[in-house]
Amino acid sequence: MNAKTSKRLNMKERYRIMTRDLGWEPSYQRYEDIFPQEGFEGIKITDWDQWEDPFRLTMDNYWKFQAEKERKLYAIFDAVSQNNGQMKISDPRYLNAVKLFITAVTPLEYNAYKGYARVGRQFGGVGARIACQMQSIDELRHTQTQIHAMSHYNKYFGGMHDFPHMFDRVWYLSVPKSFFEDASTAGPFEFLTAISFSFEYVLTNLLFLPFMSGAAYNGDMNTVTFGFSAQSDEARHMTLGLEIIKFILEQHEDNVPIVQQWLDKWLWRGYRLLSIVGMMMDYMLPNKVMSWAEAWTMYYEEAGGALFKELERYGIRPPKYADQTVIGKDHVSHQAWFIFYQYGHATAFNTWVPTAQEMDWLSEKYPDTFDRLYRPRFELLAEKAARGERFYNDALPQLCQVCQIPLAITEPDDDTLLSHRDTVHDGERYHFCSDGCRDIFHHEPEKYVQAWLPVHQILQGNCGGADMEKVIGDYYRIEMGEDNLDFEGSAEQRRWAAWKQAV
Amino acid sequence: MSRVFIALQDNENARFIVEAIGEDNPEAEVKHSPAMIRVEADDRLVIRRETVEEKLGRDWDTQELQVDMISIGGNVDEDDDSFTLYWNS
Ligand SMILES: [Fe+2]
Ligand SMILES: [Fe+2]
Ligand SMILES: [Zn+2]
User: Fold this and answer.
1) For residues B73 and B85, is the Cβ–Cβ distance under 8 A?
2) Is it the case that residue A3 has pLDDT exceeding 50?
């Protein structure tokens, strides 16, 4: 070590002093009373001192680096708004991806902030508590910076005005909401396995990297900037996710089957949730970066493959049903967009049939599936729309009791048959999209029978009334003809054309 | 054998960091995509403070990497002199 670094404490020393040295042994309260949630999932921790944060980040440096990230970020937000950044985007259809982001993803950041604040309190180990504290603050920062980034677009475009309200009510937003609430209502170790490991380590690259590159490629400076700024924290969260899993597995062999069941569950939950991202990438980005199938190959099959090979030594096998995700990668984005297209009157964004050129790109990226299954469907929809019969589906779909996605996804071994499973519990029949979701239900039926399913709630009269106009307008606060419907003929399209003429 | 990787924002700092990585890890592969740079290698990738400082022409703290980094794959080991990504398997 050279003279410069030896003048002050080195990183390992500083980490020890600023984490372990902040803890103390309780003398007048019992450990189990202070950390009542640590034991109830069956996870056995024998020595919290084995917990290591590989970044060895301490609070002093944390504030220093976070402040620098914020300075860079807000300088760009200012530049974007001072230079009419909203006019630099590739195509006004692009903004619909941003609308989906603020309504579906930003509220998850807020839930992550609450989740880490809660579980951080529950761990006996100081290293774990401090890591959760930093992550909690990071997640609040992500919520705030995303709202700031998009508030500029909200001045010019529809669909973003009521995102927290919509998150709690709108049918498709119950998919991300129920995903996160499933994790938040689990014990602290399952929460970390679900969010830090399965979501952040295994799947978050699929959300942020292709999408942020896509934002850059479509001229959306605000989104790429907050995205990468958030992602710089995310790289730290991912590492923590991997360390957490290794730590739990090393602590006791009895932890292995518990963790395996969580990995099976949360990979499947995450995979279903990311159908929405697949659809954004393949259908909503006018300038495309990579296809969903390519992203899944690169970030799940290759990066995830290396990861699960690493975990083999602990007795962990790749998640159950991982092979179904590999089959599904050629279908899921097309099926998801078709769902949103037909319910495009109940969405807080516009939908459309891909252009001829976009369909050619999809054929090239999906040689085994697009021309055979999806092109004919979209061409028929385009024909109908051209005749003035744009197709909207007024029948409410059946939802999966676990992932809450409409049962409109095909069987892994037959891509012409919709996948549908059911089971009877306590005299009631429940429906599922897949074996994966049905397994999750069977493991904890008492939890999932309580699911707030948007379609059931509408039919029970709990969403503003019996007519869909009331549900969409009053209950969801989606303004008819302003926020929703086809992009062709939309208010957004008219405004964009007028602005472009004025320039 | 497995691939480790680091993705950096395509910015002024990253150019020099990537140059330093290339010098210390001759087998590393650099991939550019809009606004980001990804560097991959088999099993192991090391970023050395001294090499980065030489390229940047200024002092550089290994933890500063956190400002420019957007994703990683692999186990992490970091101290004052280097930042290492590796797989055991
Ligand atoms: Fe976040
Ligand atoms: Fe995070
Ligand atoms: Zn499901």
Assistant:
1) yes
2) no
The strand ranges marked E within chain B are 3-9, 29-33, 36-42, 44-48, 69-73, 75-78, 82-86
Q: Do the Cβ atoms of A235 and B77 come within 8 Å? A: no
Q: How far is the CA of A202 from the centre of ligand 1 (A)?
A: 14
Contact A213 B3 (CB under 8 A): no
| Whether A208 and B7 lie within 8 Å, measured CB to CB | no
Q: Which one is predicted more confidently, A147 or A299?
A: A147
Task: Give the nearest partner residue to A65 out of B3, B5, B63, using CB atoms.
Answer: B63
User: What does the block give as tokens for A241?
Assistant: 């996710």
Residue A111 CA to ligand 3 center (angstroms) comes to: 21
CA A68 – CA A122 distance, rounded (Å) = 31
Q: How many domains does chain A fold into? A: 1
The closest ligand to the CA of A230 turns out to be: 1
Are residues A407 and A433 in contact, defined by beta-carbon separation less than 8 angstroms? yes
Domain residues for the domain of B15 are: 3-86
Instruction: Identify all chain B residues contacting A235, using CB atoms and an 8 Å cutoff.
Output: 66, 69-72
How many other CB atoms sit within 10 Å of the CB of residue A387? 8
CATH number for the domain that contains residue B36: 3.90.56.10
DSSP H stretches of helix in A299-444: 303-311, 322-328, 332-342, 356-365, 375-386, 435-443
> Strand, coil or helix: what is A433?
coil
Q: Domain for residue A370, yes or no?
A: no
Among candidates A54, A231, A238 on the partner chain, residue whose Cβ is nearest the Cβ of B77: A54
Q: What amino acid occupies position A335?
A: Q
User: How far is ligand 2, taken at its centre, from the CA of residue A371, in Å?
Assistant: 38
A165-188 residue pLDDT tens: 999 999 999 999 999 999 999 999
Residues spanned by the domain of A243: 89-352+391-502
Does this model's pTM top 0.90? yes
Identify the three-state secondary structure at position A144.
helix
Which DSSP letter does residue A281 get? I
ipTM computed for the complex: 0.90
Placement of tokens 């939950």 in the chain? A269
Please enumerate in sequence order all residues whose Cβ is within 8 A of that of A208, keeping only pairs 6 or more positions apart, or say none.
A227, A230, A231, A234, B70, B71
